[in-house]
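#lab-general

N.A. 3:47 PM
ok so I finally got the sequence cleaned up, no stray characters, all 884 residues accounted for. can someone with queue access submit it? mine expired

B.Y. 3:52 PM
send it over

N.A. 3:53 PM
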Amino acid sequence: MRRSWLVALLFAVSLVPAHAASVRIFAVGNAQRLDDALTYQSFRDKMAALMDAAHPQRASLVQAGVDDVASHLRAVDPLAPEHALVVFPESVGLIAAFIGSRGAGARLQASAPLAIASLFEPYGAQVAHYQAKYPGQPPVRYLVLALTDTLHRAFTETFRELAVAHGVHIAACADLAPARRIDAAADPALVDLLRDPDEPERTYAYEATSARPVNSTYVFAPDGAILVPDGHGGTLRAPAETGGVIRGSTDKAYLTPIEQPPPGEPLGLALGAGPVRDLEVLDTPVGRLAIVISKDAWMPDVNARFAAKGANLILQPEAFSSWAYDTAEWSPDVFKEGGFANLQRNPGWAANVNASLTGNLLDITFDGQSAILGRRTKTLPGPLGAENAWIGQNPDTGFRAIAPWIVPDPGLGDPSLTLAQRRAQLAAQGAHLLPGSGIPCPGPRVPGACENGYREAVVWHDVTLPDGDGTGAVDATRETPPHFSASVRVTSAGGPARRAPRVATRGKRVFVVWHEASAGELPNVFLAVGKHGGARFGAPIRVSGNARGSVHETFPAIAVRGKRVAVVWQEFADGRSDDRGRIMLRWLDARGRAKGAAVRVDDDDTAGKWLPAIAFAGTTPVVTWIDERDPGPEGEAFEHVYVARAVANDRFAPAVRVDQGAPVPLSTHQDNKWAPTIAAAGRQVWIAWVDFRSNNWDVYLARSDDAGATFGANVRLDDFPAYERIHDTPSVVADGQGRVVVGWTDVRAREADPNLFAAVSTDAGATFAANVQIDDSRVDFDPNRDTPTSQWLPSLALAKGTVFAAWQDDRLGNADVFFARSTDGGTTWGASERVDDTGTGPSHQSRPSLALAGRGKQRRCLVAWEDDRDGTTGVYLARRACGR
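B.Y. 4:20 PM
back already:
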C-alpha cells in the first residue's frame, strides 16, 4: 500500500513541468449589436459589463448566464494565479466606426456596402485631410484613415482603461491606423478638424501616422501601456517608447477579400497587409505571445516563424462566419485545421486562445464558439460532451474550455445520430440566425435559433506555461516499436533545447545537425557524428566557428559527398532581428573536423533569409532558401525561393530566383513562398516548395539541368482543384533514372486534419501522376464515431525504386514519429508503423528527418527527430532494416 502511494506521488511530481508558471486566461466572445456603438460611453459600458458582472447595466448589456472576468481574478479569488490575460475577438473595435451622430446614417442602412458609403459624407473633412497628407491611396482607405480619431477614442481608450481598472493584460483587435495623440494646446486647428463634433469639449484628437490602416491586435498591460515588439526579441511600451505613436502589437499578414479586395471590387476596407517578417513573439508576464489574427492561424510561414521564435501561448482573435448554417463544408472543421492543428504540431506551444466575435453587422455574419485549447493527450476523450468538441464534431482531448452555441449538439441527446444528421439539424437552426430570416428573438439580448440570436460568452482556464528550456515532464514510458530499434539519444539529457535536426550518412557514419540555445543566449548550430551506424554518438561539435552565442544561427541542413560533409544554416546579421540574414556553409571531414572558415552562400545583405536546404549535383553543392529581398507593391518583404551553387570551395555564384509567375489579385500583397526542399542526381536539380500565388498554399517544383545555374518552368504538383488548399513542408527525392517523388503535408477540401500526400514523376519531373496518400490514418476510419487525426512534416528517401517516408503523427493522441514505405516507387504505400519508443507516454516527438545507410540487404533506414521526453527538447534517433 505504501509503495503504491509512493509510486503515485513520484508520478504526480514527474508531471509538473520544470519552472512552470500558471496564467489565468479568458476568451471573451461578445455578440455585437449596433446599439452597443451609439456613443463612446455605450461602447465602453458594453465591454466593461462583459468584464465585470457587477456593472450596473449588466443585465441590459450582456446576455443572462454569461460569466465575467472580475470575479475570477485574484482580488476576488485567492486561488487565482497572479497574472491574467483577457483576449477579445478580431475586429471587436469595428462597430465603433458607427458611433455618434456621424454614424447615425450608417446605422440605418441595410447592408455593409451602403453603410460604408454613407460614412463618406459626414467624414468628408477628415477624408480630405488624409487625401492631402497621403496621396495615391485607395478611396476606401481614406475613409478608414478618417475614422482614426473615432476608433482610437473608442477602442484604445476603452481597453486601456479596462486593463488598468482590473490589473490584467488585455488583447483586443481593431481595424485602424497607427496614430499620435494631438493636444489642442499644440495644434488647435488640427484637433478641431479631427475630433468628433459630438465632443466639442475634448482637448485632444488622434491623427493617423501611417497611410496604411491595419487589422491589428493591441496588448494592453495593467498600467495601460501597449506592449509592442522591438524586432530584436524585446518589448517596447507604446506610446512612451515608440516616439508617441500608438500602434498595435501585431498586424495581420494574410487578409481576407473583405479586408483587401482585388482591384475593381467596391466592397472592402483596403487595409494594409502586415509583412510576415514583422510577426514577432511578444515576451510578457502572461507568456511568450504569438498573435495569429484569424487567417494567419492557418498560414504555414506564420506558424513556422512563431515556433522558431519561441512562442508558448497562441492568441487567435477571430471574426469567423458561417459557423453552422451550411453543410456543404462544415465551418468548425475548417476552423479546427487552423489554430487547433498547429497547436498540436508545435510541442513548444502550451495553449491557443480563441476569442470569437458573434452577431450580424447589417448583412455580414459573425459566429463561432470561443475556446481555450490545449495539447491532445493519449487518453480517451470519453463520450461526446459540451466541453470536448465544437458542434457537429466528435469528441477530442484538446479542449480546455468552450463557449456554448445557440443550441446543443443533437448528438448529446441522441448518440445514434450520424455525423451528417447532427450537422443537418444544427444547420437548420443556424439558418435562423441570418439577416432576413424573419425568426424573431424573444428579446434583444436573448440567444437562440432566431435572427441575430447569436450567443456571447466568457470562458476561462488556467494555463501552465513552462519557463526557459523546459517543455514538460520527464517521460519514462518505453515500448519497443514494431521494427525500429530502441531510440538512441543523440544529445545529452537536460541542458538547452535542441531543435530542427537533420540527418545524413556515409558508410557506417551518421551525421546529425541541429541548433540549440541556452536560455537568454543566441542559438548556434551543432553536429554530432555517430559510429557503428548510429548506435552511439560522439560529443557535439559547434559548426560555424563563431563564438558561442555571438551570432544567431538556426535551421541547419547537411549533405555528404564522399569524405566531404557540407553543413548550411541561416544566421541573422543583427542579434535577434530577422530583417537581415545570411546563408552560410562550412565544410567538414568525416570526423566532423572543420575544413576552412565558413563560406557565405547568398549575395544580399538587405533582407531576411530562412530555411536553407542543400544537395550535391555531382560534386557541386547547390543551396536553396527563402529570401526576402523582393518588395511587394506597398513595400512588403515577400518570401521567395532563391538558389546558389558553388563555383569553388569558398565561393558561390550569384543567387538565382527559382519561383516564377504572377500572383492572383487576392495575393498581390501576399505573394509568399515557404519551406523549400532540394534533391539532385548528376547535373539535374529539383527544388520544391509551397506557394501562395493562387491564394492557396500549393506545392510547386522546378528543375535545373545545369547543376543549379538556371531553372525551368514551375510545375504545380497538388491536384485538388477547389478552394482551400493549405499544403506545407514538401520533401523531394530523385534517383537519376527519371523518378522524382515529392511528399508534403496536405490540407484539402476544407477538412479538419492534415494528411500526407505524394506526387510521382517517371520523366524527371516533366509530368506527375495523380496525388496519392502516404499515411493510412483513414483506414477503417468511421466519420460518425472517430476523431480525425493529423500527419505533418514528411521526410522522404529513395533507393532502388523503393520510397521511404517518416513523419510526425498524432493518431495516438499526441505527436509521435511514424514510418511507411512504397515498394513501387511511391504509387502505393504500405502500413504506417511507429518509430519512437515512448509508447503511451505524454512526451512529444516531432520534426523527423530520414536518411538511408548501406546497400542492398544491409541498407538501413535512420530517423532523427526532436523529442521532449527528458523534460526539454533533445534529439533522438532510431534505426531499422529497410527491407523488412
